Amino acid sequence: MKKNMLSNSLQQQINELYQQLTSLKEERNRLNEEARKWAEKRDAIHEEIRNLRTEAASLKEKRDELNGKVKEFKEIREQSKTERKAKHEQILELKEKINVLLEKKPSRSMRDLEEEIGSLEWEIQTTSLTVKDEEPIIEKIRTFEAQLMIHKQIQELKDTITVLQTEEKTLVTKSKLFHEKLSELAQQSQKLHARMIETIDKTRALRAEADNMHQKFIEMKQQATSIHQESMELENQITVLKQKLRQMEKEKQSKSQLEL
Question: pTM score, two decimals?
């Protein structure tokens, strides 16, 4: 009678342990599933981080390329400024020379002097003159030619100034164009830099979020491992109780056979 009661008690303990074991396994499976979900979220964020890093690297490359162009355009602009300044200084020097020549400028126009010289030369060629008679005419021609030379020098200087002024205007336009292009490139570079910083900041925030999810994953796995160990202990207890129950059944059968 006592053995039957003991046998029933053991069986009841085994059943109770099985119930606990089932509950623990369900909890372990739940924790493992939750850990898996955290791992998936973490891995998805890691993938997003990798994409953001690639994007940040691409933005940095584009920004550096633009900065290189900005540097190049600045050099061209400065070169244009230097050339323009040199042209302007040349123009001022030539104007000074013109001012000096204007003080010596004859009252007669260039056309009048050319006609006068032509007339005197024609007189020498067509008239029989002695050397003595020719001398004053030749002297007049020399004087007029000197006066004509002043006109020509002034005109040459004015023509040169016109060319230099045209070149100066071209350099001003070129400098303005490069300045506008520089401003445009600088704005593009700033926008790319801002986007790059924004991407880096987003990457940092996501990394922190991923670390948090990884921590949750570890916590779930640790809890699941702890419950698994507890389940193993219960299974060991069940095994021991089953062995006792089998031993009791065996002894009971032996006793029945002896009584028979």
Answer: 0.54
